Amino acid sequence: MKDKTIDYVLRTTWLAVQKMYNEEAAKFESTMATGFTLLSIDPEKGTPSTALGPKMGMEATSLSRILKTMEKKGLIERHPNPNDGRGVIIHLTEFGREKRDYSKEKVITFNNGIRTQLSEEKMNNFYEVSEVILDMISNKKIYNKK
């Protein structure tokens, strides 16, 4: 694994994780993107649609498509934002809450499965490396050096 680049390892690992989640979600006629969206919506108060995209790291057009599909499936409802007449708050339906619980269970199972194979020190190293990568990208410390 020494000869592989960091981005190669990240990309192939993420694609494997994504495939695994999509295979699980397909058993219930869903997708990983839907599960991720369900987990990003506050189950009690709902979440403003304008906050959902940044929270998930998604573009508005991609999120809009997912939300439209979720609404058709009866997972979410849109309600006017009482604090902003132009915005909407996305709320989970009872069916959406059930699917959210399922998604949460799958994420917890995955996390617990990985954690049983790694020491706490290795997990801390993983998180530390991830934070460095995110910081360097977010703060343009790689390609915009002066």
Tell me what the structure shows.
63% of the residues lie in helices and 12% in strands. It has helices spanning 6-26, 32-40, 49-56, 60-72, 94-115, 120-138; strands at 47-48, 76-81, 84-92. Strands 1-3-2 form a three-stranded antiparallel sheet. Strand 2 and strand 3 (84-92) form a beta hairpin. The longest helix is centred in the C-terminal third of the chain and has 22 residues, at 94-115. It is globular and about 50 Å long. The protein starts with 5 loop residues before the first helix and ends in an 8-residue tail after the last helix. The model has no long low-confidence stretch (mean pLDDT 94).
Short summary:
With 146 residues, this protein is mainly alpha-helical.
Report strand order across the widest sheet. 1-3-2
Question: What is the share of helical residues?
Answer: 55-70%
Shape: globular
The assigned structural class equals mainly alpha
Please write the string of helix (H) and strand (E) elements: HHEHHEEHH
Largest sheet: 3 strands, antiparallel
What is the β-strand count?
A: 3
Approximate strand percentage? 5-15%
Radius of gyration: 18 Å
Distance between the termini: 32 Å
Return residue spans where pLDDT drops below 50 for at least 5 consecutive residues: none
- Say what oligomer this is: single chain
Number of helices: 6
> Residue-averaged pLDDT, rounded?
94
